[in-house]
Design a protein that fits this description.
alpha/beta; 42% helix; Rossmann fold; four-stranded parallel beta sheet; globular; binds norvaline; 2 domains; 294 residues; single chain; binds phosphoric acid mono(formamide)ester
Length: 294
């Protein structure tokens, strides 16, 4: 594994190894406190972030290294050539994490950076999120469980489909017509027999141990907000839809009153903050794995 751009590019063993390492990091962080001493991470953001930015920065500090933040629009990425800019950063840093609008930008950067590149979210996948999600599902319900993803077939959904079906978790996805997940990811996942797809949210949540949703309006889709709110309203996680005992997941930030009600996200079954905490352990595992294999 030279980079982490998409879960679809990883094999089952790699996914399971990252999660096992994250579990060890969570249990005994002190065993890894100097593991990346003297190493530097550069984090480049085209979009806003709370969890990804802070969990990577603190994760790197906890491993004994250093993290530097670069806002795309305040840097010369905004005016220069993407290849030139990232090549320079690769000369300073040991590892790079980027959050971009277009997945092709992270692919371009990985090609020339000369150091491992991590996708911290693109329009195609959010691999770091899905790894933390599978870790959380394993902790709470075990891998023999059923997850229902309800809402937009977006980056989070694509990564979840790939991560669940590579780790043995059954996943049922319900999206409106025209908002389906990536076809290539669905085709590979279907071969495992673990993925089912429907346009009917009630059908997807039947027998689900966990129900997951994400925003209906991803970063960069703000102009489509009104249309999306109308299309997605039958897909809201509310008391009427969610089975009583199902655990609730959301990658956050949540748009309360839209994809999820206060009652559901604040219920005792909600594990959104455990899920967010696991981002820290997973980011550390990803960085260790990429730097150890380099
Ligand atoms: N879930 C997630 O990636 O959160 P941020 O956008 O705040 O980083
Ligand atoms: N689908 C959302 C996830 C945010 C973490 C987005 O891309 O904005």
């Amino acid at each position: 594994m030279n980079h982490l751009l998409a879960i679809k590019d990883l094999d089952n063993k790699e996914v399971n190894e990252i999660i096992s390492l994250a579990e060890k990091l969570k249990k005994s962080p002190e065993n890894y406190s100097g593991a990346l001493k003297g190493k530097s991470l550069v984090m480049i953001f085209q979009k806003t972030s709370t969890r990804t930015r802070i969990s990577f920065e603190i994760g790197m500090t906890q491993l004994g290294g250093h993290a530097a933040f670069l806002d795309w629009k305040d840097s010369n990425f905004a005016v220069g050539n993407i290849f030139d800019e990232v090549k320079c950063i690769g000369g300073y840093a040991d590892i790079i994490m980027v959050r971009v609008y277009s997945h092709s930008d992270v692919e371009k950067m990985a090609k020339v950076a000369g150091v491992p590149v991590i996708n911290g979210l693109s329009d195609f996948e959010h691999p770091c999120q899905a790894l933390a999600d599978v870790m959380t599902i394993k902790e709470k319900k075990g891998l023999k469980s059923k997850l229902a993803f309800i809402g937009d077939g977006n980056n989070v959904c694509n990564s979840l489909i790939a991560a669940c079906t590579k780790t043995g978790i059954r996943i049922a996805v319900a999206t409106p017509k025209g908002y389906e997940p990536n076809m290539g990811i669905m085709e590979s996942a279907k071969k495992t027999g673990l993925l089912s797809f429907t346009n009917n949210p009630k059908e997807a949540v039947e027998g689900a141990d966990i129900v997951y949703t994400d925003t209906w309006v991803s970063l960069g889709q703000e102009k489509e907000a009104e249309k999306r709110h109308n299309v997605f309203s039958p897909y809201q996680l509310n008391r009427g839809l969610v089975p009583e005992n199902a655990l609730i997941m959301h990658c956050l930030p949540a748009h309360r009153g839209f994809e999820i009600t206060d009652e559901v996200i604040d219920s005792q079954n909600s594990i959104v903050f455990e899920q967010a905490e696991n981002r820290l352990h997973v980011q550390k595992a990803i960085m260790l794995k990429l730097l150890e294999e380099k």
